[in-house]
Amino acid sequence: MKKDGSGSVPLYALTLLFFMWGFITCMNDVLIPHLKELFQLTYLQAMLVQFCFFGAYFTGSLIYFLISHFHGDPINKIGYKNGILLGLVISGIGCCLFYPAASMSLYGLFLGAFFILGLGFTLLQITANPYVSLLGPEETASSRLNLVQAFNSFGTTIAPIIGGFLIFQFFAEGGELSAGATRMPYLIFAVVFFVVAVFMSRVKLPLFKADETEMSGLGALKFPQLKLGIGGIFFYVGAEVTIGSFMISFITHDDIAGISHAVAKNYLSLYWGGAMIGRFLGSISLNNNISSSKKVIYMVATSLAIFALIFSIVDLSFGQISVFIGFIVLNLAAFFIGKSAPARTLSLFAAINIILLLVSIFTKGSISMWALISIGLFNSIMWSNIFTLSISGLGAYTSQGSSLLVMAILGGALVPLLQGSLADSIGIQYSFFLPAVCYGYILYFGYFCSKRVVVETGGPLRSGH
Asked: Which ranges does the record mark as transmembrane (predicted)?
């Protein structure tokens, strides 16, 4: 991989990008119960939102992979920056399509808008994730990606509050549920995407290029960590998305909390806010340039600061949110047990999420609710750790491998759809056995990487003992 341009990386620009698509992606979770009630949908029909949105990731990534296979890597030809700009423009167009969908109050048009928006995000995922990984030493790639993913989680944390306010209150027509309530919010989002595109076009970013002669064929699939990582991304995204998608419906259920959608959106923010806390902690924990003693201080201080930030955002009392502190302490302890090893930490977090899901399935009331909400804390480092473990050492095949990993985001389309079918047939609570199975695979992937894959300083990822 050759690099040209400035060595000082404007991570602020990329952080803004991650924030934006985190915000818009989480808006799906806000819209699903809104559209379900508006169009009188079953759980299965409501999950078509995620099927179309994340199905676009698979479609776009498949097209990208086929082009790279037969004609060479497109990103290597147009550059990472132009790929990011194109993704932003397509995302903005997708947001614009919500206006006619809302005006005509047609569920099919909403699904089409979600699909176009997903195509734009596909290109952003293919370009931005590996770009962040390439912007420094390989051994600190997980730390960098956790950092920008933390700001992605900040977007997902405030989206339920801001988005819920805009749709359920500010733009609600006559105080009642209506399709028109989504018109102006998504038009505003479209303008923001176009403005960010203009901003990014003016930011100077380093240029990475791979040797085209090395990139023909299906070379990325010769790496075992990538092949297993594709499954890891599939099941991780599927589990995270389906939990977020069902969160409001789960919490508002009479057996759990029995509260309104307007209140439940605050607890959805805690789910995504937990991911933000964990990603900031992961960025510190997985950074080998920080001493162990300083890591403890930084991580505890960061936890307190972000908890205070979340508390200031959500419309909940300290008594309502205080239980969350105990799970943050558990998250800190898990990081220390993981000892800054990406694969070991990944397996540990997956095991904890399986336990939390079982608790949420077999208990009632606040215990069940808090077990499900706290899963966000342990989802935190999964994307970045799976992604970096999968593409480390791919060299010229990095973008091709990245497109395959982004293709695996198809899990976000299929797993919620399957859980929707389960919820309709066996009930929403027992349907959470499905994400527990997903985390079981992730546990195995982390175990495989910890035993058979070694990341060498400055060197490639290779098969181990």
From this structure: 12-31, 43-67, 79-100, 106-126, 147-172, 184-205, 226-248, 268-284, 296-314, 320-338, 345-363, 369-391, 403-422, 428-447
